[in-house]
């Protein structure tokens, strides 16, 4: 089966104008002047087709999100091109498309001869997707899964070219453009155990309860800075993501003390990376997270907290635990916000 890019019933005369090497990369983008010049697609028109995507994304997330093309009930498209970029004519397509139904969709990475489809690899591997069957109508809604880029792009959109053939055997195409997709607002807000902010990213599932708890080895801290053991435990093998800090209130902009970490599975969030926010504005070395994405954090796990020398009042510990799989191996996506008991200052400690 030969894959094609919005070219049902392609004829030699249709692509000959593109040169002897076949379809070129100018067809990797939703550029009306290029598409219209390639006469097979007909005229640019509007057949009430729309594209929807998440409003926000977190750089480096490995959770696939749905991109959906919708249109009139019972209708569909004959041809299709889809990508994410900062502009329609950008030479960089963002993220990657995954979990494609091989009988319906393909990424344009050179697997298909350029007689039938442009090679869009230079725009980004797995970053451009098109249909496969040359005669099948893809009925609405069309949903394709996509994983965000690891780099921080402040805002971008999804662009698509939808090709339609009508009963009178005429062609037309529509350029689709999603609403802007923005990096999670105030990405550093993910340094705090705010369930609304965490849920808004769309990358951690919904707030749920999987019975994770946090316990402390002491009820007091003092000027001697004796370590306090902070233990996270729960049922099952463990969790897949973790945020931990001490503060006088959950949303306080100052995190307190410092940490002795149990292994290299953990880090303090002092530098921005593709997968983690920079929490140094809350206090350098004060905010703990896991390191490897999707690496299991086994129960129980104990961290040593070194308190500040001065009396900062009553302190609590907050944990955000992220769960991808429960003890039975059934996929679960969700997070839990956990609050510890209070620890108080004692000058004799």
UniProtKB/TrEMBL annotation:
UniProt keyword S-adenosyl-L-methionine present: no
Keywords: Signal
The UniProt record lists the keyword Ribonucleoprotein: no
Domain Reelin: from-to ranges: 45-160, 210-325
Record's protein name: Reelin domain-containing protein
Signal peptide extent: 1-16
Entry-linked Pfam families: Reeler
């Amino acid at each position: 089966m030969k894959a094609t890019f919005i070219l049902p019933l392609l004829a030699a005369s249709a692509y000959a104008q593109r040169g002897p090497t076949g379809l070129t990369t100018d067809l990797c983008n939703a550029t009306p002047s290029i598409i219209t010049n390639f006469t097979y697609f007909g005229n640019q028109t509007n057949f009430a087709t729309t594209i929807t995507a998440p409003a926000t994304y977190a750089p480096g997330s490995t959770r696939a999100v749905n991109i959906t093309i919708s249109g009139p009930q019972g209708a569909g498209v004959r041809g299709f091109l889809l990508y994410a970029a900062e502009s329609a004519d950008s030479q960089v397509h963002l993220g990657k498309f995954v979990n494609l139904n091989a009988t319906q969709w393909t990424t344009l990475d050179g697997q298909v001869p350029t007689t039938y489809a442009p090679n869009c690899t230079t725009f980004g591997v797995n970053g451009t997707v098109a249909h496969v069957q040359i005669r099948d109508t893809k009925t609405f809604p069309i949903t394709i899964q996509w994983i965000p880029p690891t780099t921080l792009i402040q805002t971008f959109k999804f662009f698509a070219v939808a090709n339609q053939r009508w009963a009178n055997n005429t062609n037309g195409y529509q350029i689709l453009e999603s609403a802007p997709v923005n990096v999670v607002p105030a990405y550093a807000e993910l340094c705090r155990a705010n369930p609304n902010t965490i849920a808004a990213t769309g990358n951690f599932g919904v707030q749920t309860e999987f019975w994770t708890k946090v316990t402390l080895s002491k009820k007091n801290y003092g000027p001697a800075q004796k370590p306090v053991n902070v233990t996270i435990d729960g049922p099952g093998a463990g969790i897949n993501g973790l945020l931990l800090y001490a503060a006088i209130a959950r949303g306080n902009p100052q995190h307190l003390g410092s940490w002795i970490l149990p292994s290299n599975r953990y880090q303090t969030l002092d530098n921005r990376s593709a997968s983690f926010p920079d929490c140094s504005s809350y206090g350098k070395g004060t905010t703990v997270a896991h390191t490897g994405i999707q690496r299991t954090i086994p129960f129980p796990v104990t961290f040593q907290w070194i308190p500040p020398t001065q009396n900062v009042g009553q302190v609590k510990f907050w944990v955000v635990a992220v769960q991808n799989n429960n003890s039975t191996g059934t996929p679960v996506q969700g997070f839990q916000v956990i609050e510890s008991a209070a620890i108080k200052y004692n000058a004799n400690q």
